[in-house]
C-alpha cells in the first residue's frame, strides 16, 4: 500500500528473496539525504564557506533557530568504522573500490555528509553540547528531585528511569539490563503528556515492547514522575485561569499574562512566548482546551488547540534554547560557525582544548541558579 521508509523496512522481514532485493534497491534509490551534496555545492560562497544556514526565531512557538538550505540540524549520523578510508575513496572517485567494500553506496555517501564540513587550514572544529538538555530542564522546572540527582551524579537516565518505574536496580549491560530499553522509550515518548500512541509513534513495538505492556509503561512512568505530571496540570490550570479571568497567574517560576489579545508566557529568562487570540473552548472529549491562532500543520493560519503538557513542551524547549543562547554569549571570544539545538560548533586554533570550551559553555545563567 505504501513505499514509505517504515513500511519498506517492515516488509523486508517477511517477503521472499526476489522482493528483498527489489525493496533494498528501492531503499537505496529513495535515500534523499545524499541530495545534500548538491545543496552544499549550490550554497557555497566564493570562499567555499556555507552561509545563511540558520533562521533566527524560525520556530515561532519556542524561539529556536530553524535550519535552512543544507539543514545542518538534520544531518545523518555516521557509524562507519573506517570513516577516513571511505572518505578517501569518495574523494578519489574510486567507484570500483567503493562497490567492493560497501554494500550500500547511497548509505555510505549519506554517512560521509558530516565529513564534508572542514575547518580552515591550521584550525580545528570543537563541538560541545548539552547532554539531555530537555530532560534536565523539565526536571528542574518540575522540581523532580530524583531526576535532578541522577543528572547531578552523571548517571544514565534511562537506567535510572527504569529502576524508578520497576523498583529494581537496572544497569546497562548488567543486572536487569533488559529493562533499560523500556526506560529509554518511556523517557523519549512520555515527558510531555504522551501515552500509548506516543510510545507507538516512537517505535516501542519495533523495539520489542508488547502491545499489552504499553499502558502499564505509561502508568509506571507517570507514577514515578509525580512532580512532572503535577507540572503539566498546574500549567494547564494557570493558562485557563489566565485566559478566562484576564489576570496574571504564576506557577513554577513561569508567569502567564493576558494582554492586548495575547496569552503571554514569561520564562525564567524574562523572554516571553506569545499566543494569538487565546480562548478556552470545549474539546472533542467534552472537556476544556485552550485554543489560539497560528500556522498549523497545513501551513495555513488556523485555530490551534493546546493543553498543559503541550505548553510545558513549548516552555521546556524555549528555556533550553535560552540556555544555549547564553552559552553562545559566554563563548563570544571564539568563532561559532554553527549551532544545533543543544550544541555549539566552534572553529578555533588547534591549541584550544575541548575542556576550556566546555567549562565556559557549562556556566549556569544567573536566572537559572
Describe the structure.
With 369 residues, this protein is an alpha+beta fold. It has three domains: 31-118, no CATH class; 119-131 and 228-368, no CATH class; 145-224, no CATH class. Helix content is 43%, strand content 19%. The protein has 15 helices and eleven strands. It has helices spanning 5-11, 17-29, 36-43, 83-92, 95-101, 105-111, 133-142, 145-152, 157-166, 180-190, 196-201, 214-224, 226-245, 308-330, 354-361, and strands spanning 54-59, 64-67, 123-129, 249-251, 254-259, 262-266, 272-282, 288-295, 301-306, 335-340, 343-349. The protein has a six-stranded antiparallel β-sheet, with helices on one face. A hairpin with a 2-residue loop joins strand 5 (254-259) and strand 6. Keywords: DNA replication. It comes from Gardnerella pickettii JCP8017A. InterPro entries: DNA-dir_DNA_pol_A_palm_dom, DNA/RNA_pol_sf, DNA_polymerase_A.
Helix and strand arrangement:
Layout: H1 5-11, H2 17-29, H3 36-43, E1 54-59, E2 64-67, H4 83-92, H5 95-101, H6 105-111, E3 123-129, H7 133-142, H8 145-152, H9 157-166, H10 180-190, H11 196-201, H12 214-224, H13 226-245, E4 249-251, E5 254-259, E6 262-266, E7 272-282, E8 288-295, E9 301-306, H14 308-330, E10 335-340, E11 343-349, H15 354-361
Antiparallel strand pairs: 1-2, 3-11, 4-5, 5-6, 6-7, 7-8, 8-9, 10-11
Helix pairs in contact: 1-2, 7-13, 7-14, 9-10, 9-12, 10-12, 13-14
Amino acid at each position: 500500500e505504501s513505499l514509505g521508509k517504515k513500511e519498506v523496512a517492515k516488509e523486508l522481514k517477511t517477503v521472499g528473496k526476489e522482493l528483498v532485493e527489489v525493496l533494498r534497491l528501492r531503499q537505496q534509490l529513495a535515500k534523499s539525504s545524499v541530495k545534500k551534496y548538491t545543496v552544499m555545492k549550490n550554497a557555497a560562497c566564493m570562499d567555499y564557506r556555507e552561509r545563511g544556514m540558520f533562521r533566527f526565531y524560525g520556530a515561532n512557538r519556542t524561539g529556536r533557530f530553524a535550519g535552512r538550505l543544507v539543514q545542518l540540524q538534520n544531518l545523518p549520523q555516521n557509524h562507519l568504522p573506517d570513516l577516513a578510508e571511505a572518505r578517501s575513496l569518495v574523494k578519489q572517485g574510486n567507484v570500483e573500490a567503493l562497490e567492493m567494500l560497501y554494500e550500500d553506496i547511497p548509505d555510505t555517501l549519506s554517512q560521509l555528509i558530516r565529513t564534508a564540513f572542514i575547518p580552515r587550514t591550521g584550525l580545528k572544529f570543537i563541538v560541545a553540547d548539552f547532554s539531555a538538555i530537555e530532560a534536565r530542564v523539565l526536571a528542574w522546572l518540575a522540581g523532580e528531585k530524583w531526576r535532578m540527582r541522577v543528572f547531578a551524579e552523571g548517571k544514565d537516565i534511562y537506567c535510572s528511569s527504569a529502576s524508578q518505574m520497576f523498583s529494581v536496580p537496572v544497569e546497562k549491560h548488567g543486572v536487569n539490563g533488559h529493562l533499560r530499553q523500556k526506560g529509554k522509550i518511556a523517557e523519549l515518548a512520555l515527558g510531555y503528556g504522551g501515552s500509548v500512541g506516543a510510545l507507538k509513534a516512537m517505535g516501542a513495538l519495533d523495539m520489542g515492547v508488547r502491545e499489552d505492556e504499553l499502558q502499564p509503561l505509561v502508568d509506571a512512568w507517570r507514577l514515578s514522575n509525580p512532580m512532572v505530571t503535577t507540572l503539566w496540570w498546574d500549567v494547564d490550570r494557570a493558562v485557563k485561569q489566565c485566559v478566562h479571568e484576564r489576570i496574571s497567574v504564576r506557577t513554577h517560576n513561569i508567569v502567564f499574562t493576558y494582554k492586548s489579545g495575547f496569552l503571554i508566557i514569561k520564562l525564567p529568562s524574562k523572554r516571553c512566548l506569545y499566543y494569538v487570540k487565546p480562548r478556552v473552548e470545549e474539546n472533542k472529549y467534552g472537556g476544556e482546551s485552550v485554543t489560539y491562532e497560528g500556522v498549523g500543520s497545513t501551513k495555513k493560519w488556523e485555530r490551534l488547540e493546546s493543553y498543559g503538557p503541550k505548553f510545558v513542551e513549548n516552555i521546556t524547549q524555549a528555556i533550553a534554547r535560552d540556555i544555549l543562547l547564553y552559552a553562545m554569549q559566554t563563548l563570544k571570544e571564539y568563532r561559532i560557525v554553527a549551532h544545533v539545538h543543544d550544541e555549539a560548533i566552534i572553529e578555533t586554533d588547534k591549541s584550544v582544548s575541548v575542556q576550556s570550551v566546555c567549562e565556559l559553555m557549562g556556566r549556569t545563567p544567573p536566572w537559572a541558579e
